[in-house]
Specification:
The protein has 415 residues and is an alpha/beta fold. The protein has helices spanning 10-21, 39-42, 60-68, 83-94, 98-126, 144-159, 170-174, 199-214, 257-262, 330-339, 384-400, and strands spanning 2-6, 25-29, 46-47, 75-77, 137-141, 164-167, 187-191, 195-196, 217-219, 224-230, 233-239, 242-244, 248-251, 271-281, 293-295, 300-305, 308-317, 350-358, 365-368, 374-378. α1 runs parallel beside α8, α1 packs parallel to α11 and α5 (98-126) packs across α11 (384-400). The chain is globular and about 65 Å long. The structure holds flavin-adenine dinucleotide (FAD). Flavin-adenine dinucleotide is lined by residues 7-12, 29-32, 37-40, 42-46, 48, 223-224, 252-254, 256, 260, 275, 277, 301, 312, 354, 356-357, 378, 380-386.
């Protein structure tokens, strides 16, 4: 079976690998000159079932409203003339009830837990080094009331299989980076099942294996501009290198998915949520974090990727806009100075913005749309590194006629 996988982020690469291993003749198509340069190359690196909460929650509408008035809320809205934003936004608001937030969170959690198992299997089989740190992840709180609220919120995930511990004095014993700043923190909830690693390094290594062991091919520098439909089938992909054809196609273009799908009449509710990402070289001998985490006050996530420290923050609905100014990194700089002043050389940072491919409910869109040979694997939002291996396995199962291990309720185009 000849298969074109469109998109060279972690979702496209994991899908290409699983399909090539299952015997498909796979070619992966990517517009950049290397793999994993978009969201995959800028994320916080946390493999985090413990962070599965749906963004569409009863608190979200107020946060968005406050953000329009200038508040630094967890999710932010910038007014724009883009009608897509408002159509997507209305669907998002419909998901903001208590019942739907809970259901969407549990759909995401189940997928994240499944994905971790698939990932462990792949890593064991292939022996991939991706700067893995398996010491859980920390959700830090600055005051006692916030910590109590965090514990109550995290209980939902604990009831559904996540092992957690509450750390106050024990925080600095687990990670000495917190010893000098103990007085600034009320404590942390540690999700023991979380971990971290570099999704770009992982993607490059996995694609090398798919190519060398399983015969997959990669076409870099090739932009997909349209899908060519003939009735209920796709019969080609129009690219900057001409028309490419195959028996089956996988759409895994991250935030590019909705625009390309529309050329074949498929409407995907995926909209970008912009985040800011910075990476710094660790200082030799400097006290640096050894456990990944999120500061719930400043909404900054961090992880150690080999000899570098990655710090990310912010979720802004502002369209297909990759621009940034130094001011956008204020939260990150404040947190770095406040908690990890000695950790890295902050004068030598790499800065960028990247876009999360968000669905209104949160879970990604998997499987068939309206064409019999076009499989969707997109809309992974803020959790794509965590979910990629699991969604690759599910989509490959659907393509090879195997029953996926996971119930697909809440994970298909029709929800
Ligand atoms: C700031 C930030 C922090 C995050 N932190 C985490 C985290 O800690 N843990 C976690 O699990 N997830 C995290 N995420 C989310 C995660 O990074 C994404 O969900 C994931 O990378 C999505 O993978 P993808 O392959 O679908 O998309 P991408 O990585 O964006 O890949 C899509 C690829 O398709 C290519 N492409 C797009 N359009 C075209 C076209 N027309 N033709 C050819 N190629 C095209 C792009 O160049 C790109 O390489 C974070 C995201 C951000 C932005």
């Amino acid at each position: 079976m000849k298969t074109l996988v469109l998109g060279g982020g972690v979702v496209g690469v994991t899908t290409a690998y699983v399909l090539a291993r299952a015997g498909h003749e796979v070619t992966l198509v990517e517009e950049k000159d290397a793999l994993g340069l978009e969201a995959t190359g800028g994320n916080a690196g946390i493999i985090a079932p413990g962070h599965s909460f749906a963004w569409a929650s009863p608190r979200a509408p107020q946060m968005l409203w406050q953000s329009l008035r200038g508040a630094e809320t967890a999710i932010r809205l910038r007014l724009s003339a883009d009608p897509e934003l408002y159509a997507w936004g209305l669907r998002f608001l419909r998901e903001c009830t208590t019942g739907r937030a809970r259901r969407n969170t549990l759909v995401k959690l189940r997928l994240c837990q499944y994905s971790q198992r698939v990932m462990q299997d792949i890593v064991r089989t292939e022996g991939i080094d991706y700067h893995e740190v398996s010491r859980g992840a920390l959700y830090l709180h600055r005051d006692g009331r916030e910590l109590e609220a965090g514990i109550r919120k995290m209980a939902l995930l604990a009831e559904h299989g996540q092992q957690q511990e509450i750390l106050a004095a024990g925080l600095a014993r687990l990670d000495p980076v917190f010893e000098p700043v103990r007085h600034k923190l009320a404590g942390a909830i540690r999700d023991l099942g979380d971990s971290s690693g570099d999704s770009r390094v992982f993607s490059e290594a996995l694609m090398r294996i798919a190519r060398d062991k399983h015969g997959a091919a990669v076409r870099l520098g090739t932009r997909v501009t349209a899908l060519r439909a003939d009735g209920d089938r796709i019969d080609g992909v129009v690219t900057s290198d001409g028309v490419l054809t195959a028996d089956t196609y996988v759409l895994a273009l991250g935030v590019g998915s909705a625009r390309v799908a529309r050329t074949a009449g498929v409407r995907l509710p995926i909209y970008p949520a912009k985040g800011y990402s910075s990476t710094f070289p660790l200082r030799p001998g400097g006290l640096a974090p050894t456990v990944p985490g999120v500061d719930e006050r400043w909404l900054v996530g961090w992880s150690r990727l080999g000899d570098r420290l990655r710090l990310t923050s912010t979720a802004e609905f502002t369209g297909y806009d990759w621009g940034w100014t130094p001011r956008d990194f204020n939260n990150i700089r404040t947190l770095a100075r406040d908690l990890f002043p000695e950790a890295a050389d902050y004068e030598r940072g790499e800065y960028r913005a990247c876009l999360r491919p968000m669905t209104p409910a949160g879970p990604p869109i998997l499987g068939l749309g309206r064409h019999r040979n076009l499989f969707l694997n997109c809309g992974h939002g803020h959790m794509g590194w965590t979910m990629a291996c699991g969604t690759a396995r599910i989509v490959a199962d659907l393509m090879t006629g195997r029953m996926p291990d996971l119930d697909l309720a809440g994970l298909t185009l029709r929800r």
